[in-house]
Design goal:
The protein has 258 residues and is an alpha/beta fold. 23% of the residues lie in helices and 28% in strands. The chain is built from five helices and 13 strands. The strands form two sheets. Strands 1, 2, 3, 4, 11, 12 and 13 form a seven-stranded mixed β-sheet that branches. It has a six-stranded mixed β-sheet with strand order 5-6-7-8-10-9, with helices on one face.
Length: 258
């Protein structure tokens, strides 16, 4: 079972890279299931229903999100109706949308869980207890369970990885827009990576126009961030699971430039 996780898609350059590279990678790597974080896709913050549909048409099976999911109000029009769009499961009870989903493929039933961190992040419920609650709900319904932790602190992501080690197949992180080099199999068999990285403009600061960000650092004055332009790259993580043996055949980071 070949899964591919796409790092935070940021603005128009990120969408262009996703449009060109996701179908290409899906063909070349014979991917079975693609999960992409889309919370920065609309102008660098938020997601719209139209962009969501673009991703689904391009070969993304599930779109995850994080703290920017509510930044474009149009998303409220579809977040309750579209099961392939997830927001963090540890938002308070009654929040629109869903934090996890169960998806049927020809090979396996995959549960995808979206969580948000609390360190240097907006207030949300405890991701560790939320993960426990979701796993109870999933029960034995899934052949594979994968978790995306949208968080700032690597320590919090790594702690969740160890907390869920042996209980889920994979834990990956998003949010920092910088791909980490710590991919590994944890002691009880869970595949882990602290951050997938970003799908967006190469010549940028986390996807934003570098000159504007520099102005902010140099002056301390308020600025309006804008998405950078120019060539873009896609960062992600490939994992091949052996469903019969319940083990991992292969895993590696991916970076493709458009």
């Amino acid at each position: 079972m070949k899964l591919f996780f796409v790092g935070d898609i940021c603005g128009r350059p990120g969408r262009q890279a996703a449009q060109a590279l996701i179908p290409k990678l899906r063909r070349e790597m014979d991917l079975d299931f693609v999960i992409a974080n889309g919370e920065n896709a609309a102008g660098g913050v938020g997601l719209t229903p139209d962009i969501l549909q673009e991703f689904l048409q391009q070969g993304v099976d599930v779109v995850t999100s994080g703290n920017h999911i509510w930044d474009k109000r149009d998303i409220f029009k579809c977040i309750d109706e579209e099961p392939r769009l997830l927001r963090p499961a540890n938002y308070p009870s009654g929040t629109p949308g869903r934090g996890w989903g169960l998806f049927e493929t020809p090979f396996a039933r995959i549960a995808v869980v979206n969580l948000a961190g609390r360190v240097y992040m907006p207030p949300v419920d405890c991701p560790f207890r939320a993960a426990d609650d979701v796993l109870r709900q999933i029960g034995g319904k899934a052949d594979l369970i994968v978790v995306e932790m949208h968080a700032e602190a690597t320590s919090e992501k790594k702690a969740l990885g160890y907390y869920l080690d042996g209980r889920v197949a994979c834990v990956v992180g998003t949010h920092t827009h910088v791909q980490t080099a710590d991919e590994q199999i944890l002691p009880q068999g869970t595949v882990y990576l602290s951050d997938l990285g970003m799908t967006g403009a190469e010549e940028s600061i986390l996807g934003m126009d570098k000159d504007i960000v520099l102005q902010k650092f140099l002056t301390g004055l308020p600025v309006r961030f804008e998405v950078a332009s120019g060539s873009a790259s896609l960062c992600g993580f490939y994992v091949d699971f052996d469903l019969r043996r319940k083990s991992v055949r292969e895993f590696r980071r991916i970076k493709e430039t458009l």
